Amino acid sequence: MIFNVRCLQLSICILLSATNLFGGNWANWRGPDYNGSSNEKDLPVKFGVAENVHWQAPLPGVGASTPVIFNATVFLTSTKVGTDQLFGLCFDRKTGKEKWQVAIGSGTSDRSSASFANASAVTDGRLVVFMVSSGEIAGFDYEGNIQWQRNIATDYGDFAFLWPFGTSPLLIDGVCYIPVLQRDEVVGGHGSGDMLSYILALEIKTGKTVFKMNRTSKAKRESLESYTTMMPYQTDNGLQLLLAGGDRLTGHDLKTGQQIWFWETYNLKKQFNFRLVASPLVIGKDVLICAPQREPLFMINGGGKGDISKRKWKWSLPDKLISSDTCTPALYENNIYLLNGEKKYLMKLNPKDGAVVWQVPLPGKVRYFTSPTVAEDKVYCMNQNGTAVVLSTKDGKILNVADMAGDAIDHPIRSSMPVAHGQLFIRTNNMLYCIGK
Length: 437
Fold this sequence. Notes:
Blueprint: H1 5-15, E1 37-38, E2 53-58, E3 68-70, E4 73-79, E5 85-92, E6 98-106, E7 122-123, E8 127-131, E9 136-141, E10 146-151, H2 152-156, E11 170-172, E12 175-180, E13 198-203, E14 209-214, E15 231-235, E16 238-245, E17 248-253, E18 259-263, E19 281-283, E20 286-290, E21 297-301, E22 306-307, E23 315-316, E24 330-332, E25 335-340, E26 345-349, E27 356-361, E28 373-375, E29 378-382, E30 387-392, E31 398-403, E32 419-420, E33 423-427, E34 431-436
Parallel strand pairs: 1-28, 18-22
Antiparallel strand pairs: 2-34, 3-4, 4-5, 5-6, 7-8, 8-9, 9-10, 11-12, 12-13, 13-14, 15-16, 16-17, 17-18, 19-20, 20-21, 21-23, 24-25, 25-26, 26-27, 28-29, 29-30, 30-31, 32-33, 33-34
């Protein structure tokens, strides 16, 4: 794989600019700016299963993956009721018609609340890459023709995770980056006991390995596990790959995966159950890390070389309410939107010092697993029973509450709600909704 570094940096600067390069698309898990926000306009506020629904399409089974949207196409992965089969699905964004369905792999979780359709797809507008928790990953064109397929758990060893593997691929300039931050011991019958964590880079056109780089950590047991997605991170020395997990934050070279710097640790008590789920949030040169298990946030100034652990964090808050165990925060108009899904609170924070601008209790009695989406002065989030909530970014006022799942709540809903082309997309256990015009 030949990299033109200057062109690469230019293309990523465009990707990270306030104006989405693809204009209205949501081509990866956290959207056009990798931070859960969009510059979309004319988005719906009032909706429900029988209100303001442009179309709805039945799904074959449950899944935690968030839909990704590119122009007139919607992609997502799914399980299938009564089987162990895992599928990639393609829908027409304008009509909701299923265009094609392809088998990706197989596998089921021994945990009733988890599925193997966790990773969100990623697309460059020509090819789409699907990945499932069994390690199967495959590339397809927009007509559903397979371009390549492989199983990285077969190629590099069975995954060693307590929960099904759940990171989503990051796509930059034709290369998919996939972190596998796992245990070095057998867990739940998986793993070999001597596995190393690593970062894998694959060509989107061929699926061939660009590099595989081991990623070390001092963490122990479950604290080695990370379900986070890598993020692009612009430093004074160029664009890097940002990765959180294993009790540390690291910056890596795009071409080789080589670790450039590391900071540790958000695990101040050296706990062994500190698996990381919420991905890091990039705010300029700063990075927000959400420590798990009701522990604090940490705002870090990253970059540099080698061990930067002596660099004190910019701020950290001891309030256990201002925390997020599983929900990745969003950034919108230079404000942080943090969802404490366990306590059912949404907060707006000032990134300079973490000061709370407002905090609002959310409706419902069950947990929120989804990450918030923010656009056009509105925050969208949904709890595990399918209660979708719309709030104002100005003051946290609740603008709409809608039950989108009805009685189909036998499995916790974990899919976040992307926005694209003036529409909102909601995935429940058995249905995909397109809300808006």
